[in-house]
Write a structure and sequence with these properties.
heterodimer; A: mainly alpha; B: mainly alpha; MetI-like fold; elongated
Chain lengths: ~325, ~290
């Protein structure tokens, strides 16, 4: 692995985060009115309901330091974000924004990681089988179905699944992530978690699987024309070994590249899936923040969404040279 | 005249592709809803409190009414073209920006290319929803046009990538080199020699961009950040969920907008995948 490759990827990672912080800094200042005006207005409209309203107002004033030059404000904002100090949430007061998000993040990452992994693996396998000349006929008939599936967005699919499996038939829970507050690692608790996560995960898997299958089919068609496959066949290798070790292994490389790009879309999609199923991840947190115009929390969720995806992309990028020796030698 | 005949023959040949034909037919039908609909349906009924609330479909109200007192058939007739307009506007602006940047990056190369490519790659890994949220939540009073502008600012990256890759190969073609040798200026070469050859691929990325824009718009709308007084398809779904139409059994409220959105996404996908086949001959030969 060359150092310039690693440095380039790290630079991109930093650039992504810098861009996200800058958007968070600039946008509220470009909007009409004072940046604190919206927050103050809201606190005033709630009047007595918020305990320690004066404290929040003071913390906001200090935080914005509105009399300072804009560049100093900008520097301070970056520093604060770097320390994960994103302000105080209004709807979850007195919790800080980072604390509220860190509590919700494991749910999102768990749901997103597991279902994206399943969609990626199964989709790639199905796509490879569709392109493979030796696979049974009925596999090829999946293709049009998968095409339609890949075109339908996460959210719409989630609503259909929610209606059919939770409301109409009542087989699965309407929402949430668990029934009882009972903590601890027991078999029934685990089953309960899986039972609640099944429908959201199914939505994400179904929405993603077509994309991976179609991409894999395209990559596989390209690989199948290569000479080394003919050689492998001429050597008399078993078809299973040719399929997995020679064809699929090489066709998977562009898929891993696509994974880095598709993660952003998947993260956006799963945020909406969480909203549909009231799954207690950052998506649902975001929905509540939007309903109560909790602007710091909205910004915080946006930043963490970018951070999560950027970290995963960085990890993927650093793993990639291990999979593809050509990059290592560059 | 000859050009026109040639063009028509190319169009007919393209329409022989079943995916392209099916996709185009569905999109045209959806556009017709907004064009023909107002002649048969009283669009004023799409405004709140214009009809009795919560009525199931009946001969009087074909698709029933919602809890806000809107007739759903009128809502569909008004909302479908709004959603399409938002998507088309955002997609068009995005692809125009993308084509411009792709042309510059691909043709000039060097540090310009490196900067544009780096920015494009960086932007591609950012979940679009994250930025859209922050912007849409700050801009309070949003309408269809501002929403299209906000979305367009995040939908130029794919077009930039595709166009840049295409320009890189076209730049080395002999006719471009001839033009350069004959002393043609860079900008004339870009616009007169390269750009016309880019139209099919720009069109393919336009379809993708429109679809992505409608998707982003829908995401903002179902989160409650959409245009509050325009009954787009996404807003209709948002209101249906807000008034818990699901658990109240008011299927007539949410099924029509969802079906239309699904048809729209599937047809746009069919069109763009068919256009991809034309642009990417390796996939074509495989079938």
């Amino acid at each position: 692995m060359t150092w310039s490759y690693v440095l380039r990827r790290l630079a991109m990672f930093v650039a992504v985060l810098w861009l996200a912080v800058t958007v968070n800094f600039i946008v509220p200042r470009m909007a009409p009115g004072d940046p604190t005006a919206a927050v103050l207005e809201q606190l005033l409209s709630r009047g007595q309901q918020v305990q320690g309203a004066a404290d929040i107002v003071a913390s906001y004033r200090a935080r914005f330091g509105l009399d300072d030059p804009i560049l100093i404000q900008y520097g301070r904002y970056i520093l604060n974000t770097f320390r994960l100090d994103l302000g105080t949430s209004i709807s979850y007061f007195p919790q800080s924004v980072s604390r509220a998000i860190l509590g919700a993040l494991p749910w999102t990452i768990g749901l997103l990681a597991v279902s994206t992994a399943i969609a990626f693996l199964f989709g790639s396998l199905i796509g490879a089988l569709i392109a493979w000349p030796g696979s049974p006929r009925f596999v090829k008939s999946f293709a049009p179905f998968l095409m339609v599936l890949s075109a339908i967005p996460y959210y719409l699919l989630a609503l259909v699944i929610l209606y059919v499996f939770a409301i109409w038939t009542g087989w699965f829970p309407l929402g949430g992530a668990y029934t009882s507050q009972a903590s601890g690692l027991s078999f029934s608790n685990l089953a309960d978690l899986l039972y609640h996560a099944f429908l959201p995960a199914l939505s994400i898997v179904l929405a993603g699987i077509g994309f991976w299958a179609l991409g894999m089919r395209g990559a596989m068609v390209g690989v199948l024309g290569e000479d080394y496959l003919t050689l492998a066949e001429a050597k008399g290798l078993p078809p299973g070994r040719i399929f997995f070790g020679y064809a699929m292994r090489n066709a998977l490389l562009p898929q891993v590249t696509a994974l880095a790009i598709a993660l952003g879309t998947a993260a956006s999609g799963s945020v909406l899936v969480e909203v549909a199923f009231s799954y207690p991840g950052v998506g649902y947190l975001l929905y509540n923040a939007l309903r109560s115009s909790d602007y710091f929390l909205i910004q915080g969720v946006a930043f963490f969404l970018v951070l999560t995806v950027a970290v995963s992309v960085l990890v993927l990028d650093l793993i990639y040279p291990l999979l593809d020796p050509r990059i290592r030698r560059q | 005249m000859q050009m026109l005949a040639k063009f028509l023959r190319a169009v007919l040949k393209a329409l022989a592709n079943p995916r392209l034909a099916a996709g185009l037919v569905i999109v045209v039908l959806l556009i017709l809803i907004g064009v023909v609909g107002p002649f048969f349906v009283d669009v004023r009924n799409a405004d709140p409190i214009s009809v009795k609330t919560n009525l199931p479909p009946s001969p009087k109200h074909w698709l029933g009414t919602d809890s806000g007192g809107r007739e759903l058939l009128a809502v569909i007739v008004v909302g479908t073209p709004q959603t399409l307009r938002m998507g088309a506007l955002a997609g068009l602006i995005g692809v125009l920006i993308g084509t411009g940047l792709g042309l510059i990056a691909g043709y000039f190369g060097g540090w310009l290319d490196r900067i544009i490519s780096a920015v494009t790659d960086t932007m591609l890994t950012i979940p679009p929803l994250a930025i859209l949220l922050v912007v849409a939540a700050a801009v309070r009073a949003i309408n269809v046009e501002t929403m299209a502008l906000i979305i367009a600012s995040l939908s130029w990256m794919y077009a930039t990538r595709v166009i840049r890759a295409q320009v890189l190969t076209l730049r080395e073609q002999s006719y471009v080199q001839m033009a350069r040798l004959s002393g043609m200026g860079s900008f004339r070469i870009m616009f007169r020699e390269i750009l016309p050859n880019m139209v099919p691929i720009a069109f393919a990325s336009l379809v993708g961009a429109v679809s992505a824009a409608i998707l982003s718009g829908m995401a903002l709308e179902v989160l409650g950040l959409g245009p509050q007084n325009t009954p787009t398809l996404g807003m209709t779904i948002y209101w249906a969920l807000l008034y818990s139409a699901f658990s109240r059994g008011m299927w007539w409220w949410w099924t029509p907008p969802m079906l239309i959105l699904m048809l729209l996404f599937v047809s746009l996908f069919l069109i763009s995948s068919a256009l991809d086949d034309f642009a990417n001959p390796r996939l074509r030969s495989a079938k």
